[in-house]
Amino acid sequence: MNLIVELRQYTLHPGARDTLIDLFEREFVTGQEAAGITVGGRFRDLGDPDRFVWLRGFPDMEARERALHAFYGGPVWQAHRVAANATMLDSDDVLLLRGPGFGATEAPDAPNPAGPVAVTICHPLDLAAFAGHFERRLRPALTAAGTPPLAVHRSEHAENTFPALPVRTGEDVLVWFTAGQEPALPDLSARLKSAPQQLLLEPVRV
């Protein structure tokens, strides 16, 4: 599956994360799905008590534009947007990606499928070259080490046709998920602009 995927990281007011999660699970999952949005995993960042991370996907950019207009102009968001926005300090840390998406239970063979999930975000000097290195060397090495990469995504550089919701621009990234703890990575400094970012996430349990 090759979707347009948003990886969204929200910085929240102290102590507001569970308030947003309760509202999100009660209203915004089904509300977005009704608008044609595929809602992926929702996570608590175990390294930051005031960060909420989630994904959503769309078949293509045209479908994304239609679905976002339908949801944010529709009754569910209009009824609950004030309460949702009151929990947030920053909701603009959004990577627009292309890949399969990722749900909270997409590692059924893991020792603890409901356990933590790690996301690794790399900023390559050359995305195409790093993607080739990833497939030839890094993926096999991580798999052999017991931390196989799941759901690999790359940057999508199409124009953001729903500018009311900003996305990060001017970045090339390769992103993947791992069941369990953050994978140990070799020295990638010669291939990356900066050190890899790794987040350890706890799936929201409903």
Descriptive overview:
There is one protein chain. The chain has 206 residues and is an alpha+beta fold. It is 29% helix and 31% strand. An eight-stranded antiparallel beta barrel has the order 1-3-2-8-5-7-6-4. A hairpin with a 5-residue loop joins strand 2 (38-45) and strand 3. It is globular, with a radius of gyration of 17 Å.
Would you summarize the structure shown here?
With 206 residues, the chain is α+β, with helices and mostly antiparallel strands. The protein contains four helices and eight strands; from the N terminus they run βαββααββαβββ.
Total beta strand runs: 8
Per the principal axes of the C-alpha atoms, what is the gross shape?
globular
Q: If you average the pLDDT, what whole number results?
A: 94
Strand fraction equals 25-35%
What's the story with the biggest beta sheet? Answer: 8 strands, antiparallel, barrel
Number of helices: 4
Coarse structural class:
alpha+beta
Helix proportion range: 25-40%
Low-pLDDT residue intervals, each spanning 5 or more residues: 107-111
Distance between the termini: 25 Å
What is the radius of gyration? Answer: 17 Å
How are the strands of the largest sheet arranged? 1-3-2-8-5-7-6-4
Order of helices and strands: EHEEHHEEHEEE
